[in-house]
Amino acid sequence: MKKIITLVATLFFITACTTTSRVSDYNRHSEVASTYTPAQIRDAIITTGKARKWQIQEVTKDAVIAKQDIGKGRYAVTEVSYGRGHYDFKLLKSEGLKQQGKSVHRRYSHWIRLWNDDIQAKLN
């Protein structure tokens, strides 16, 4: 019985200590009321992103590219596309964040979750 408890505890600990998130956690689709125009959504994305230290560059009329640089060669580049009533985060590239296939360091997912929460708060 002790071996089973030890095994379960060990597996739980290893799972809890994971440092990566799956792609579904870092490519995020969010919706807001359809009464918001793309310009209002863009402004909320840019304002809240800059407040969180993202370097933002408008690339098209319906998307921005944002870079979060945490130093020592570690960064993430994300595309945020938007339209009436929605916006999407898509990780384009990262360095030093353990991006491999469909996983990336959980810190990136945390950044996106916080940024998303800020956008939602600003628009709702």
UniProtKB/TrEMBL annotation:
Q: Highest taxon of the source?
A: Bacteria
Q: Which PROSITE patterns match?
A: PROKAR_LIPOPROTEIN
Q: What is this protein called?
A: Lipoprotein
